[in-house]
Automatic annotation (TrEMBL):
Annotated InterPro entries: Gfo/Idh/MocA-like_OxRdtase_C (IPR004104), Gfo/Idh/MocA-like_OxRdtase_N (IPR000683), Gfo/Idh/MocA_oxidoreduct (IPR051317), NAD(P)-bd_dom_sf (IPR036291)
Designated name of the protein: Oxidoreductase domain protein
Gene3D superfamilies: Dihydrodipicolinate Reductase, domain 2 (3.30.360.10), NAD(P)-binding Rossmann-like Domain (3.40.50.720)
Family from the record: Belongs to the Gfo/Idh/MocA family.
Keywords, comma-separated and alphabetical: Oxidoreductase
Superkingdom of the source species: Bacteria
Segments forming domain Gfo/Idh/MocA-like oxidoreductase C-terminal: 131-332
Residues spanning the membrane: none
Domain Gfo/Idh/MocA-like oxidoreductase N-terminal: from-to ranges: 3-116
Molecular functions (GO terms): nucleotide binding; oxidoreductase activity
């Protein structure tokens, strides 16, 4: 069994991670660090701690999840590795590719494993996109467009999210997911162009972006904004045989907030209203119809961490993908 501590009890620690650690019998979620809330009110069997030092001093803790503010990720991950702990770090892993490579080298030096919480590789919509592309249902991909929009005109009450600091802003937040998915599908781009914008009143950080990745024949467009009220397609993919258009986003986050836990009936299953539309050619026949969305399930990310730590299995997330993701974000911010 892998014994776990989570640093932070915000959205990620409370809703996106703790339920999966608790649902997996290979993990024991022992401690959650929080200075403002009592995690035991929600997870009675978990201990509360108020400092990273208390976690690092506990010899039972095998894996520390760094779910704290972005600007702490590098320092906390470094401290955990030096204390002999495996580490799961929330995205963005670090503000820079150089810092990421430094932590990767340190993990190898101390013989510990590093993981990044790129949970949206196992979103229902992205799993469906991967299946459609890998099965060649729209032929050879020519263009891929992904949107990750929200309507949040009011500034985030978590002041750290609205403060100019390393790794802050929407590119390092939602952009880390859209970039990760593009890299999973297509690898390292030949060239990068992009811009970030500040659109909300009184905002100090970027809250919108437009990024273009050139893969030669394949052109990738990634966009996000916090001022999109009317839903737009989540994915628009054009291929040599047809088109794929998908509205709606994975429902796991909403389910977890509503108390629907992993393993419960209906968890991660999207309603038919948001199934994708496909217009293509299959076996010489023109086909236009709906594509049922595959169930979303972030559990494989957690199971893989246990298997890597306990049995030496290969990680599902290559840390070099994370380095490439950060290089793209740095190029956009500089350019």
């Amino acid at each position: 069994m892998t014994t776990v501590a989570i640093l932070g009890f915000g959205l990620s620690g409370r809703y996106l991670q703790a339920p999966f650690f608790l649902a997996n019998p290979n993990f024991r979620l022992k401690t959650i660090v929080s200075n403002t809330q009592n995690p035991q009110d929600i997870y009675p069997g978990v201990q509360k701690a108020t400092s990273l030092e208390a976690v690092l001093a506990d010899p039972e803790i095998d894996l520390v999840s760094v779910a704290s503010p972005n600007e702490t990720h590098f320092a906390y991950t470094q401290q955990c590795l030096r204390a002999g702990k495996h580490v799961l770090t929330e995205k963005p892993f670090t503000p820079t590719a150089a810092e990421a490579e430094e932590l990767i080298a340190l993990a190898k030096q101390v013989g510990k494993h590093l993981f990044v919480f790129q949970n949206r590789r196992w979103d229902s919509d992205f799993l469906t996109v991967q299946k459609v592309i890998s099965e060649g249902l729209i032929g050879e991909v020519l263009s891929y467009e992904a949107h990750f929009n929200r309507y949040k005109p009011v500034l985030n009450p978590k002041k750290w999210k609205e403060t100019i600091a390393p790794g802050n802003g929407i590119l390092y937040d939602l952009g880390a997911h859209t970039l990760d998915q593009a890299i999973v599908l297509f690898g390292k781009p030949k060239s990068v162009w992009g811009q970030t914008f500040t659109q909300r009143e009184h905002s100090e950080v970027d809250d919108a972006f437009d990024v273009r990745l050139d893969y030669g024949k394949i052109k990738v467009t990634l966009k996000s904004s916090l001022l999109v009220r009317e839903d737009t397609p989540r994915y628009i993919i054009q291929g040599t045989k047809g088109s794929f258009v998908k509205y709606g986003i994975d429902v796991q986050e909403d389910h977890l907030k509503a108390g629907i836990m992993p393993g419960m009936p209906g968890f991660g299953i999207e309603t038919e209203a948001n199934w994708a539309t496909i217009n293509t050619e299959v076996g010489g026949l023109h086909l236009r119809g709906r594509v049922e969305t595959l169930p979303g399930n972030w559990a494989p990310l957690f199971q893989n961490m246990h298997e890597v730590i306990s049995a030496g299995q290969a990680p599902l997330i290559d840390m070099q993908d994370i380095v490439e993701q950060l290089r793209v974000m740095e190029a956009v911010k500089v350019g």
